[in-house]
Amino acid sequence: MLAYIVRRLLWTPVLLALAAFFVFFMGTFAPGDPAELRLGNRATPERIERERERLGLDDPIPVRYFRYVGDVLKGDFGDSYHYQGRPVLEIIAPRLWVSMQLNIAALIVAICIGLPLGFYAAKKQGTGRDPAIVISMLILYAMPVFFTAPFLILFFAVKLHWVPASGWGGFFSLQIILPALTIGIPGAAVFVRHMRASTLEVIGQEYVRTAHAKGMSNFVVNYRHVARNALLPILTIMGFTLAGMFGGSLIVELIYGIPGAGRLSLDAIFQRDFPVLTAFVLLGAGMLVLANLVIDVAYTIVDPRIRLQ
User: Fold this and answer.
1) How many CB atoms are located within 10 Å of the residue 219 CB?
2) Complete DSSP assignment for 139-166
3) Where are the domains of the chain?
4) pLDDT per residue over 144-199, tens digit each?
5) Where is the ABC transmembrane type-1 domain (predicted)?
6) What is the pLDDT of residue 121?
7) Using 50, 70 and 90 to split pLDDT, how confident is the model at 307?
8) d(CA 263, CA 279)
9) What is the tens place of the pLDDT at every residue in 250-284?
10) How far apart are CA 292 and CA 281, in angstroms?
11) Would you give the end-to-end CA distance of the chain in angstroms?
12) Is the distance from CB of 268 to CB of 280 less than 8 angstroms?
């Protein structure tokens, strides 16, 4: 198991290096002169040229790339074009922390709803409850967030007054409930489909029938033999589900007025603030690589066959 974790750790710098390569060239070949974007349209040509020299924009691309990688390794993502030269990391770190809390809460919602419903639907195969659950979750998955979010706001915030309609108060605040539900419901639909299929496959295995034949209670069979083995394929899709949640949180943050990474990245696109935008891409890739590493380690813990291999 330790060797497996070490191999996965050795792949992490390679993936991050590829992400840095992509991000660098995305910023290098983006339209517009970085020096002019930094100084504004009113800057004189002489001042723009001095800024280009200061930033090293006339250096060969390989030199600029290795300088960029060296700065990133030191935690220096450059200065923002729009926010008066403030360091990029100082701007995006609190926003990323907000988005991370929101998406972790959404993943918890998706797990708590999707896994039990998927397991229950599989156990009720052949009854009306199975297709009812599957069709309901399919409809919820197909609904766009700009429809789901206003509905949740109108029902839970405006009509029932249970939770605030917008704003941000942290991970343990009431404000996180509605946006976490908005992001988590499509993820729950994905988990329902995969958990149902995985459970049906496990139920048909010989060792499950043997456990029933030995007189084990349904609870023991369902927990020890069915649920634990059905969860194995689910772990492999959690990383992709989390990535999809991060991508979908942009609109949700705008709707609920959450000061997260989504709003800041959208502002960076319209303001052509490429240092902020490229830092978001690189840090987002790093977080997803780390999340997949954690999921892989969890897979080795849950599945003894991986440890033996």
Assistant:
1) 8
2) HHHHS-HHHHHHHHIIIIIIIS--S-SS
3) 2-88, 92-308
4) 888 899 999 999 999 998 999 888 888 899 999 999 999 999 999 999 999 999 99
5) 96-295
6) 92
7) low
8) 14
9) 889 889 989 888 888 888 877 777 788 888 888 87
10) 16
11) 8
12) yes
Nearby residues of 134 by Cβ (< 8 Å), 6 or more positions away: 121, 192, 193, 196
CA 26 to CA 48: how far, in whole Å? 22
For residues 203 and 194, give the distance between their C-alpha atoms in angstroms, rounded to a whole number. 14
Cβ partners under 8 Å of residue 17, min gap 6:
69
State which amino acid sits at residue 123: K
Going by C-alpha positions, the residue among 50, 191, 68 that lies closest to residue 119 is 191
DSSP assignment string, 75-129: T---B-TTTTT-BHHHHHHHHHHHHHHHHHHHHHHHHHHHHHHHHHHHHTTTSTH
Helix (H, G, I), strand (E, B) or coil at 42: coil
Question: Which residue has 């299929």 as its token pair?
Answer: 197
pTM: 0.82
Residue 182's nearest CA partner among 101, 96, 267, 103 is 103
Contact 78, 88 (CB under 8 A): yes
